[in-house]
Amino acid sequence: MRLISVVILTFNSERFVKTCLDSIFSQEGSDFEVIVVDNGSKDNTIGLIKDNYSQVVLIENRDNLGAAKARNQGIEVAQGEWVLTLDCDTILENSFLANFKKIEESLSPEIGIIQPKVLQYDKKTIYSTGIFLSRLRKFYDIGKGKKDNGQFNEEKIVFAACSAAAFYRKDMLEAIKEKSGFFDENFFFLAEDVDLGWRARKHGYKTLYYPKAACFHCGNSSELNKKFRQYLCWRNRNLLILKNDNLTGFKRLAILMLYDLPRLLYLLFTNDFVFKALKEIDIFYLGKKTE
Question: What range defines the domain where residue 246 resides?
């Protein structure tokens, strides 16, 4: 099996990271490396890793540089032919890497991304089986919140993968890399995985949902402020569309009137961050026009 580089993002993750790392190092075989990128933790995350996991490659940032930037730092030093991105609050099933091994060597070159089955910590509820993009350009995790009764046990092509747990071909990442990185650092956090999957599609790659590799994810372990998360969701959706979509005319106007405008009006009255978002969207748009 080709080497896998596991890239884990941490931020004040002391209560999660040990369980995550133990689930990785209990996997069969030694054909993987583990890279942890810490985004300025103030708790004992770094100390715990240094004291107990000397085999981990640890990158320490003084401040929170965002999920996209941190993952890019890990990918830059990764030696594997596949990169597995993991959130720190993810636990791998015992057969996770062994099941990936069963399919990896038979994959066609066009499969650039693998989405595992991601369950919540109760091991019964779906967190993600891939990302879907609707006609209104809303993106969401397929099956999220539904009980896992075997209805998501078939392999299929999906739009993109949830980077809380996803495999990426390293040579694909190199092929689609931009000035803003493998993951676009303009996004900071949220939707950067949708953007990467969208760009991969435009380069001819596909994302395969592979349910035999399963893991468990808590979600929002960083405990982001609700209004700040709203700001990132709204801003990043607009960056995503400006960057990747080719809709014009009536279809784009319909999306604006049916979804974006009502949401903007709501946020104008409830979230002060929206003015910051509008400014950043404008700067991003002007930057794209001058490229």
Answer: 226-290
